[in-house]
Design brief:
The complex is a heterodimer of chains A (about 280) and B (about 180). With about 280 residues, chain A is an alpha/beta fold. Chain A contains ten helices and ten strands. In chain A, helix 1 packs parallel to helix 3 and helix 5 packs across helix 8. The longest helix of chain A has 15 residues. Helices cover about 30% and strands about 20% of the residues of chain B. Classes of the chains: A alpha/beta (about 280), B alpha/beta (about 180).
């Protein structure tokens, strides 16, 4: 770790307040200790020596607010993270969802396209892309644009392909990617049934209802508990009876699901199904 | 009541096992373990540590409340932060020092959230993870202990910490155990 910049409590509060005043983006919904680390990381990465310089720049350069806050969002770092979960989802696709006429899926708070592209590869392997309607949402247009492009860095590609081969030993991501000059790019056919929407999971209504599957893994980690609860409640309401909600390996539904609608269908993975 | 945060990598497993085996069931403090581990293997590690530990040990869920006398092991492929308000936060942010969990992250969060009510211990390891975090803990008033490099299977990590920070103690594993047994 670089010797991360120290940010005082006062500076921390000032950044949060300034961003909120200038842009209406409420950073108090984010888990404070991680947000503080994101600030420090941003300062190191971009060569800021003090938090006051960030505050000054926020005040004089309106476009800076957007780029600054977008970088605070945590991107996913590899495809097929937790291969066991994807193996179980593969089974659910084969045994439960492949028979549906239309499969409605929502990936809220998409950030970096790894989770989305992993899902798409799995759907493609099960020949389910054409029957799927997939919503990928984020409060940031720049993040959606990045996902639409489907770019993947060589290092990430290598890790992702190794993960993929743990599930499908004879397959390779080459099947779904094209090598560019310095990166790899996912086939646009994979993305053709994805609807990219600017949407804030906290403030806005869901993009649709009656979802067969919602993939919300490791995104609520970054919210304070009350926001986590409200977001997951909203997701549960958007799932159709018999539909699935998947959260991260070390997350839970504590404090949500007041009506007891969800039950776990996997011993080891956090895959929940809504009662019929 | 103290919070003891232990970081380790290659060669630290045996020392951690010895520490856990020798701490009494009545150990009143909270123990956090941030140990480098294989990211794809989610099971087996905590079970192996449980074999000799008299203290309850588990991998925390995100936003779990911290309870005294418990041992919290950073889960595979997650960073573990200690949050103000006595909870644990997990994160999938990019690896730090090629590591997730990163010892620096856990140590730095302990410095931020726990200040001087804390003991930081760094054990054997093959990279420099932990050195900066330990420095931050020291600056926050925590007591800093580094395992004696002569005793470490791999001494890169402890040497980096000693070079970076004015550590309070350089202890062998039996001295670390004795220190913790007498921590009041």
């Amino acid at each position: 770790m670089e010797n991360l910049a120290n940010i005082t409590d006062e500076e921390f509060r000032r950044i949060v307040t300034t961003v909120n005043t200038l842009s209406n983006i409420d950073l108090t919904i984010l888990q404070p200790i991680i947000l503080r680390h994101r600030f420090a990381r941003y300062m190191n990465k971009h060569g800021y020596t003090s938090a006051s310089t960030i505050i000054d720049k926020l005040l004089i350069d309106k476009s800076f607010v957007k780029s600054f806050t977008t970088e605070l969002w945590v991107h996913t770092t590899e495809m097929f993270r937790d291969t066991e979960m994807w193996t179980e989802l593969d089974t659910i696709f084969k045994q439960r969802l492949s028979g549906e006429t239309v499969v409605k899926i929502w990936v809220p708070d998409v950030c970096g396209d790894d989770e989305l592209t992993t899902l798409l590869v799995l759907l493609a392997n099960n020949k389910m892309i054409q029957k799927s309607m997939i919503y990928a949402t984020s409060p940031y247009q720049s993040i959606l644009d990045e996902c639409k492009y489907g770019n993947i860095e060589p290092k990430k590609y290598e890790i992702s392909d190794a993960n993929y081969k743990r599930i499908y030993p004879t397959n390779s991501l080459e099947q779904y990617t094209k090598k560019q000059e310095k990166t790899f790019r996912f086939s646009q056919e994979l993305l053709e049934n994805v609807i990219f929407l600017k949407q804030n999971i906290i403030k806005d209504t869901p993009p649709d209802k009656g979802f067969n599957l919602i993939l919300f893994r490791n995104r609520a980690l970054y919210y304070i508990n009350q926001v986590r609860k409200n977001s997951i409640e909203k997701l549960i309401q958007s799932i159709m009876p018999g539909g699935y909600l998947i959260i991260g390996a070390n997350e839970n539904l504590n404090g949500t699901d007041q009506d007891g609608m969800m039950f776990k269908v996997s011993k080891a993975e956090n895959i929940y199904k809504k009662k019929q | 009541m103290y919070n003891v945060v232990i970081g380790g990598s290659a060669g630290s497993f045996q020392t951690v096992t010895c520490i856990l085996a020798d701490l009494p069931k009545t150990f009143p403090h909270t123990l956090f373990l941030c140990l480098h581990r294989l990211k794809h293997i989610r099971t087996g590690f905590v079970e192996a540590l449980k074999l000799k530990s008299k203290l309850p040990i588990h991998e925390p869920q995100d936003k779990e409340t911290i309870l005294p006398g418990n041992v919290y092991l950073a889960p595979a492929n997650y960073h573990m932060y200690i949050e103000q308000g006595n909870t644990i936060s997990l994160s999938t942010e990019e690896p730090v020092n090629h590591s997730r969990p990163s010892i620096d992250i856990t140590f730095a969060s302990a410095a931020q959230s726990l200040g001087n009510q804390c003991v930081g211990i760094l054990l054997s390891g093959a990279n420099k993870d932990g050195a900066i975090g330990l420095k931050k803990m020291k600056e926050a008033g925590a007591t800093i202990i580094v395992q004696s490099p002569d005793e470490c299977q791999v001494k890169t990590m402890t040497l980096a910490a000693i070079k970076t920070t004015d550590v309070d103690y350089i202890f062998t594993s039996s001295q670390i155990i004795s220190y913790l047994q007498n921590l009041k």
